[in-house]
Amino acid sequence: MINLVRSEILKIRSTQVWFWMVLLAAAFTALGTIGMVVTAINAYDAGDPVDYYAVFTQSEGAGVALLVLGLLGLTTEFRHKTITPTLLATPNRWLLLAGKAASYAVFAIVYALVCVLLNFAIAIIWLSSVGVPVEFSQGVPGGVAKAFVTLVLTGMFGLGLGAVLRNQAAAMVFGIVYFFILDPLLNYTPWVRKGYAYTPGGAVKAFISNGDASNMPDDVHLLAPMAGGALFLIWALGLLIIGGRLSLSRDIS
Questions:
Q1: Residue 233 falls inside a structural domain
Q2: Is pLDDT at 12 greater than 90 in this prediction?
Q3: How far is Cα 151 from Cα 141, in angstroms, rounded to an integer?
Q4: CA 204, CA 60: separation in Å to the nearest integer?
Q5: How far apart are CA 166 and CA 243, in angstroms?
Q6: Total tally of structural domains belonging to the chain
Q7: Would you say residue 161 lies in a domain?
Q8: How confident is the model at residue 84 (pLDDT cuts 50, 70, 90)?
Q9: Residues 68, 23: contact at Cβ < 8 Å?
Q10: Domain that holds residue 90
Q11: Least confident of 139-148, 178-187, 230-239
């Protein structure tokens, strides 16, 4: 298993995609952090409370980079027909899927660390430079941990979604469109929004929300944060299992 994980990590490192995804993750983190720091400074100058929880959980916004990285995990193999030699080297298909999941989890952890550290660096340096006190109250440590876990699970979710769809273009379009377009629309679609809490987007929002859903419609009720995190984990594992059954348990060539 260790050799399989090493092999999968080498595959990821053999292209420049991982590097560009790091830059994309850093860019989303930086933009989100800058926006929240400016909001925090304005609130402090106006005498209003500073939302430190929002400031120090902006690394979660880098999820799109982890989603794309995960989506490429198996779809690239199918697109470039390298899945056949991969399976010849590792005939146990479930072991292969487990190895891919473990290797992408390793990369997701590294990405998450980069994003969390960048978020802290920008926020602490900027707030301190303008005289805004830096505090880690309001559940900030737990929020940082949840943002970190969310990024890792998003990578696993992307890997599972790619395994289900197999087609790289379709998986990329569906994954990005869902989280950026369909997910916000589901909040305001009358016949589905009451069940929104059980969607992947609803689970992520609940997990990272710190129990605050004031920005949601009145009849949309999110799960408790830990329940949301557990549900997103179930979504990620469920897609991996379904994808393994659909994509790896049938003839490849």
A1: no
A2: no
A3: 16
A4: 10
A5: 8
A6: 1
A7: yes
A8: confident
A9: no
A10: 2-182
A11: 178-187
Give mean pLDDT, residues 11-35. Answer: 90
Q: Are 140 and 146 in contact (CB under 8 A)?
A: no
What is the radius of gyration, based on Cα positions, of the chain?
19
| pLDDT above 80: residue 87 | no
152 or 250, which is more confident: 152
Q: Are 71 and 100 in contact (CB under 8 A)?
A: no
pTM over 0.70: yes
Examine the pLDDT at 149 and tell me if it is beyond 80. yes
The one-letter amino acid code at 125 reads: I
DSSP 16-51: SHHHHHHHHHHHHHHHHHHHHHHHHHHHHHTTPPP-
Average pLDDT of the chain is 87
Q: What is the pLDDT of residues 90-103, one digit of tens each?
A: 777 788 888 888 99
Task: Quickly count: other Cβ atoms within 10 Å of residue 206's Cβ.
Answer: 26
Tell me phi and psi for residue 157, to 5 degrees: -60, -45
- Are the C-beta atoms of residues 84 and 96 closer than 8 Å to each other? no
Q: How many Å apart are CA 248 and CA 158, to the nearest integer?
A: 16
Residue 144 tokens, joined? 């940082």
Find the DSSP H helices in 80-192.
83-89, 93-129, 140-165, 168-177, 183-186
By the 8 A CB rule, do 189 and 99 touch? no
Buried b (16+ CB within 10 A) or exposed e, 138-150: bbbeebbebbbbb
Q: Give domain status of residue 246, yes or no.
A: no
Q: In residues, how long is the chain?
A: 253
User: Considering the domain boundaries, does residue 105 fall inside one?
Assistant: yes
